[in-house]
Request: fold
Amino acid sequence: GQQLNQSPQSMFIQEGEDVSMNCTSSSIFNTWLWYKQDPGEGPVLLIALYKAGELTSNGRLTAQFGITRKDSFLNISASIPSDVGIYFCAGAKTSYDKVIFGPGTSLSVIP
Amino acid sequence: DAGITQSPRHKVTETGTPVTLRCHQTENHRYMYWYRQDPGHGLRLIHYSYGVKDTDKGEVSDGYSVSRSKTEDFLLTLESATSSQTSVYFCAIRTGETGNTIYFGEGSWLTVV
Reply:
């Protein structure tokens, strides 16, 4: 079936550093979503992207819908300890299609 | 907050017993989903519903059934729980008639012993 790949799988960074992670698919998607999950809680939607090339920000977070429509990127600027968690990308081929989730990127921030 | 409530939040049950998890939403969304989350597998879709009494299977539906008799409630039933169904279960809703923005509940932790 469809699969999304996320990289890196995990990352350890120093507080204040910028973070970049990406998500790739073998299929073309028309929706990309980015979520953050804290331990013991459900994933929380960070950014939703609906158009190729779209660049959207949410505070220190910026996500982009890749031009090829097969990838998406999430950047976090000036990381802080509360950025720790697992970041999931998700995508769908059409507006009514099921949403597929990537395996996640685990982020650790060293104070 | 997408107005989603899951119950129970935590449950321990014995192998072979039936278990029902409830998802309740307050915002009248048409689409509702049940996912399970396991280490190494991420979030996998079990079943989903696109309206009252309208449901369909996801990628890991074996051993699970669902029912939606009211817009606000989507029930997930493990017919005869097995240890492989020990997992965290998340209910989710989709907002709007177009677009695929999914919002999750807080999760139900199920342990089958």
